[in-house]
Amino acid sequence: MHRLANAVSHVTGSSSLRAIALLALAFNIAACEAVVNRVRVEPGTTPLTPVFVLTDTTGRQPSGTIYGLSVVRCGDDTAVWQIAADGSLSAPSRIEYGHAPPGYVVRSGPEPLRAGCYDVFVTDGRRARFRVDAAGHLIVDARRDSTSR
After folding, report:
1. Residue numbers of the domain that contains 12
2. Lower Cβ count inside 10 Å, N or C end of the chain?
3. Does any domain span residue 60?
4. Cα separations (Å) of 46 from 79, 113, 138?
């Protein structure tokens, strides 16, 4: 019985609690990883088919890991198109709306783009925004945003 009491007090001692607290802090810091990816919107070769260019935050290097990309109407949480990596390939540098690149699968959509505002989100990246006007022209919002998902 004495050995069990020592084992319990050893596990619950202050040095063990300190180690557990440090481990929990490390997990929390890892969960708050910095933004590393950037998505830029460009007009595609066909109307209403924007192209999403994926880079690092400088815009000059390849992106980091991209587990998914979502296009949502501004102010909405429902994706009009969403793709997710299947783990077989690394992220491409360009993705055309409605066409899942090799290594990605479609999770929802694509719905036809209509007049209005759209946000684009990628893993560990800043939001990009574009608009479609009443004539069906793509208007890229040049403003950079710090919102991430």
Report:
1. 2-31
2. N
3. yes
4. 21, 13, 11
Domain count, the chain: 2
Q: Are residues 21 and 49 in the same domain?
A: no
User: Are residue 24 and residue 66 in the same domain, yes or no?
Assistant: no
Q: Both tokens of residue 98? A: 């409605």
Q: What are the tens digits of pLDDT across the range 35-83?
A: 688 888 999 888 899 999 988 777 777 676 777 899 999 999 899 999 9
User: What is the helix (H) or strand (E) element at residue 42, kind and residue range?
Assistant: strand 37-42
Question: Do residues 13 and 57 share a domain?
Answer: no
Closest CA to 57 of 83, 33, 78: 33
H or E stretch including 8?
Answer: helix 2-11
C-alpha span between 133 and 130 (Å, rounded): 10
pLDDT tens per residue, range 7-33: 433 333 444 334 333 334 333 334 455
Q: The domain spanning residue 136 has which CATH number?
A: 2.60.40
Amino acid at the residue 102: P
53 lies in a domain? yes
Q: Helices (H), strands (E): how many in the chain?
A: 2, 9
